[in-house]
Amino acid sequence: MNYKITILRKKSSEEPSYEQTFAFESSDDAQTVAAALILINRSDLIDIEGKKADPIAWECSCLQKKCGACAMVINGKPGLACDTKLKEAADKNGNIRIEPLRKFPTVRDLICDRSILWENLKIIKAWIEDGDDVTLKEDKETVLFDAGRCLQCGCCLEICPNFYAGGKLMGMSAMVPVSGMLQKLTPQQSKELRKLYSKHIYNGCGKSFSCRDICPAGLDIEKLMVNSNAVMLWKHLIK
Ligand code: SF4
Ligand code: SF4
Ligand code: FES
To answer: How many CB atoms lie within 10 A of CB 144?
Structure first.
């Protein structure tokens, strides 16, 4: 199939965005957007108008849906480039549009600065201190396992109508790791976290769970949140 891949590009964070379209031919139905970007960058880059172009800047690491680095917006939907097949993403004329995640500052082309995700985890203190006396609660291995599968890719934040970088709502990229921690902490140990949970995860979330449908790790975000709300909020209100 002959594809026309349009990329929303930017030379640096200070410069304006521009679009550039590349022709790409592939007969492999399983070829991903990531594979196409790698192959396009390997050639002498000429755009569809015949102009020389700079290599497309984008991030990847595992190419196996495990690291979240290649998250981008493909035809208006956030997803992983290594998990999105060209054939499925393209319209019937082979057109595909790729943009960087829009909720984070663009560094260059498809690379954005997602450090807010880590800053938020620092604010909410989403880790267990060395020497903390923690015991895994019975039958909670599945929750802990699921929480550990979050890629910190930011796709859930991209689609969230209430998240903006630096705002109060930290979204599901913060809730998921916290849901795992809760399986280990005693109520006493999670006292401070409880306040932060209300402020940054529970309040401001509309609970429509469009983030669940977009999560490339396939996490049941709703289930994890219901579980976390029960531990963090309801049990303490009922007491
Ligand atoms: S919850 Fe899902 S979409 Fe959100 S950061 Fe984790 S893996 Fe990505
Ligand atoms: S449930 Fe809705 S408001 Fe809450 S984090 Fe997900 S997308 Fe955002
Ligand atoms: S490169 Fe790691 S998830 Fe795509």
So the answer is: 16
